[in-house]
Amino acid sequence: MSDAKPKVVLFGELLMRLETPQQLRLLQAERFDIGYTGGEANAGVLLARFGVEAYAVSAVPDNDIGLACTNHLRRYGVDVRYVQKRGSRLGLYFLEPGAGYRATRVIYDRAGSSFADLKPGDVPWRRVLAGKDWLHFTGTAPALSPDLAALTLEGCRVARELGVTVSCDVNYRSALWSVPAARQVMTEIAPHVDVLVANEEHARQILGAPQASPELPDVFDPRRYGPVTQYLRRQFDLRAAAITIRTGDTSDETTIAAVLDDGQELVGSRAYAIRPLDRVGGGDAFSGALIYGLLQKETAQQVIDRAAAASCLKHAVRGDFCHASLEEVESLARDGPDGRVRR
Fold first, then answer.
1. What secondary structure letter does DSSP report for 299?
2. Spatial CA neighbour of 332 closest among 243, 256, 281
3. pLDDT attached to residue 2
4. Are 181 and 211 a contacting pair, CB within 8 Å?
5. Which domains does the chain have, with CATH numbers?
6. Burial of 321 by CB count in 10 Å (0-12 exposed, 13-18 middle, 19+ buried)?
């Protein structure tokens, strides 16, 4: 890579996160802890921490709530010059952290938000993407309305014309749209994407991929996902496809790993057994680190090792952002877990 910093554009909704304290249920809570987030912004914060120029493309209301949100992103190095001031409200999500066999729950309140009301033509894509290297979005952006689906596709097409790499995390959320609706939209958008991230279930349900190889019962064996990644690459003419893997029966523990198929080889990361402080944002940290590695033109093994390590470390940080340095992520990817005090 040249000395010039790579430039990544991140398109998606910015939200206020309202979390019940002390793992209370929503029915019990009398107050909320406030944060600001967004799947794409979460990836952008990690990219900024890694030294990449990260640009959020979104919309927030022109009031103190919108300002608090953009100030929060600025604090962590994300450029907000393309965040429009329009509309009357910021989207919300309410978070009820799980415990034991009680799952973590999310309730969205996003209808009519400043971002949800965007329409085709509202983002000056040629100006936004000029001189940039990468455009990233998740499936939650086109999920919010047919207009946003069209606006997302509009951005992908302009990026392709300008030679900007496009990545997408399928990130299906049943609270936002149905499987048939997601399938219709995402199969139209996917041919305009270069790098795709999904878990095996979403790749199968939304994009029509075959199931992982049943004759390989080890869920962390990367060869198990060869039929999935090969289908995705060939069906949508992708440069690379990544599959994230998660197992675990309780909210208090999980094991994660991932595989990457770049058309040359299929490789897998180590599996990380985690007792998470906060599960939310792990996939976004993965995407951010994946983008970074691909921008660096590293080997597939280096890319997937760093991406999985970043996701692992996000689970040890409260809030949606992964506040881990490049050195911390690379140390974990290279040397594996080390629980000693560092001093």
1. -
2. 256
3. 52
4. no
5. 7-324 (3.40.1190.20)
6. buried
- Give the burial string for 234-272 (b: 16+ CB within 10 Å, else e): eebebebbbbbbbeeeebeebebbbbbbbeeebbbbbbb
Rounded distance, CA 36 to CA 262, Å?
A: 33
27 Cβ contact list (under 8 Å, min separation 6): none
Strand locations in 200-335, DSSP E? Answer: 240-250, 253-261, 266-268, 272-274
pTM: 0.96
The answer to whether 41 and 72 are in contact (CB under 8 A) is no
CA distances from 321 to 66, 73, 221 (A): 18, 10, 29
Amino acid at 28: Q
Helix (H, G, I), strand (E, B) or coil at 257: strand
Residue whose pair of structure tokens reads 């680190």 in the numeric block: 289
The CA distances from residue 114 to 14, 63, 84, 141, in Å, are 9, 12, 9, 13
Per-residue pLDDT of 205-235, as tens digits, reads 999 999 999 999 999 999 999 999 999 999 9
pLDDT value of position 118: 98
* 1 has a pLDDT exceeding 60: no
Q: How far apart are CA 163 and CA 134, in angstroms?
A: 9
